[in-house]
Amino acid sequence: MELSIFMRSHMRAQVIRLVIALVLLLNTLNVAESRRGRILESFEYSAISCRAHSASLTEFGGVGDGTTSNTKAFQDAINHLSQYASDGGAQLFVPAGKWLTGSFSLISHFTLYLHKEAVLLASQDTKEWPVLKPLPSYGRGRDAAAGRFTSLIFGTNLTDVVVTGENGTIDGQGSFWWQQFHKGKLKFTRPYLIEIMFSDNIQISNLTLLNSPSWNVHPVYSSNILVQGITIIAPVTSPNTDGINPDSCTNTRIEDCYIVSGDDCVAVKSGWDEYGIAFGWPTKQLVIRRLTCVSPYSAVIALGSEMSGGIQDVRAEDIVAVHTESGVRIKTAVGRGGYVRDIYVRRMAMHTMKWAFWMTGNYKAHADSHWDPNAVPEIKGINYRDMVAENVSMAARLEGISGDPFTGICISNVTIGMAAKAKKQPWTCTDVAGITSGVTPQPCNLLPDQGSEKITACDFPADDLPIDSVEFKRCSYRMSHSV
User: Fold this and answer.
1) Which residue has the higher pLDDT, 194 or 10?
2) Per the record's keyword annotation, is Amino-acid biosynthesis included, yes or no (predicted)?
3) Which residue in 224, 237, 60, 243 sits closest to 158, CA to CA?
4) Rounded to whole angstroms, how far apart are CA atoms 431 and 227?
5) Cα gap 475→303, rounded to integer Å
6) 3-class SS of residue 427
């Protein structure tokens, strides 16, 4: 009897232990299944500012299937995150996927971050592109006299903005726009991929930009701008697909970028004819370094042609040009006014070029017929040194303006290897003045050789610009979501 009671008690204990074990096992399986059903997005990146709040585009109805429009999702997300502008700022994460979208506008104290497998696809529905007035320093659109389509990623009157990623992609799907341009069917100027206006403390970094409808990156009327680690690719025959165009900007740094395009890789601007003169906002304190450029029909670095507000203190170094029409090009004309002065370029390698150097005072593309024939530009203090070029058709084409010569040109320690079918006359010079030292082939008489002892004559500033003192922070994003 006692044994039977003991057995029943023992069996009940065994059953209880078994039930507990089964419960624990089921809980463990449920937790494991729950973990399998969630993905943890976590990464770090460098930025001028970190954010206290985070969100994913999918939280606002974003669909990354390449066909669903996400214009509203982007704007809803950004509008929602604007409440945190004074509370540590916010970052919007764009996950892997193809995110079709029209133009959307950024906010201050904000970061847009693209996953490495995220692709923003620019919509080809013109209804998703609001129209803006022409830029005040231009007076008209570039493609048409009327306004211009808003850029894909747009912002104005902002401070502290970061557009970055893990080399995520922005595809402008530009062929639609290029065809409209060639057919003369555009009523408004084509959109750019990224344009930031009247803003301060801007970072654009670690992205791939493809097939822009027109210019790729356009900071304008802004200051303290960093453009880093950008890859820009467009067909070399695509119209006006400039890479990076700082326009009436102060304290800008462009570095570690790779650009293949149908126009200038970097075009420095400050307004067009009488409109740029009246607006009077120069581009100054610009650093360009570690740039690789391919552009068979344009320049690595172009100064102008819209330079009527002035361009001053540009420092470019460690540049590689491959199969590019010209290395450094200055484009201006009577009617432009303004100035290009204190330009410094060093350590540039050029391979297969039409011209190593090109300056022209006869670039006559005017905004309208109201340009001032008395508005002559000042081109002064142009310094090139420590350069090597090979397979070049013509060393230099330097054409100033009659009665308004380009002065203070200095070229030193430059070796240009001419192509097998190079022009018989490697240099052409009119209305220019300056000096050279250690330059091959021998320059024109207007740039007399000062001898090898002057080989370091051409200046390059030893001081740093304020943009070089910017310090980056290590920022993070962490969010889990179900799959």
Assistant:
1) 194
2) no
3) 224
4) 36
5) 36
6) strand
pLDDT above 70: residue 2: no
Within 131-272, where are the H helices? 175-182
Is the pLDDT score of 42 beyond 80? yes
Rounded to 5°, angle at Cα 110 from 466 and 45:
70
DSSP states of 265-314 = SEEEB-B-HHHHHHH---EEEEEEEEEEEE-TTSEEEEE-SSBTT-EEEE
Contact 398, 359 (CB under 8 A): yes
Where does the pLDDT of residue 21 fall: very low under 50, low under 70, confident under 90, or very high at 90 and above?
very low
Higher pLDDT among residues 33 and 330, named by residue: 330
Distance CA 27, CA 67 (A): 41
The domain segmentation of the chain, as residue ranges, is 43-241, 271-281+306-365+373-467
Residue type, 263: D
Whole-number Cα distances in Å, 483 to 35, 37, 40, 205, 476: 10, 6, 10, 29, 22
pLDDT over threshold 90, residue 308: yes
Could you name the CATH architecture of 43-241?
3 Solenoid (2.160)
- What's the rounded Cα separation, in Å, for the pair 286 and 10? 85
The CA angle 33-37-40, to the nearest 5 degrees, is: 120
Q: How wide is the angle at C-alpha 52 spanned by C-alphas 48 and 54, nearest 5°?
A: 100
Most confident of the following: 34-38, 387-391, 419-423: 387-391
Of residues 171, 263, 264, 342, which has the active-site annotation?
Answer: 263
Distance CA 36, CA 38 (A): 6
Coil, helix or strand at residue 372: coil
CA distances from 294 to 69, 107, 234, 240, 422 (A): 33, 34, 10, 14, 20
What is the token pair recorded at 57? 């585009």
d(CA 48, CA 478): 19
d(CA 293, CA 204): 18
d(CA 159, CA 292): 29
Contact of 285 with 467, CB cutoff 8 Å: yes
Q: 282-302, pLDDT tens digit by residue?
A: 999 999 999 999 999 999 999
State the Cα–Cα distance between residues 389 and 392, nearest whole angstrom: 7
Cα dihedral angle (375, 381, 387, 389), rounded to 10 degrees?
20
263 is catalytic: yes
Amino acid sitting at position 366: H
Write down the pLDDT at residue 480: 56
Tell me the pTM: 0.91
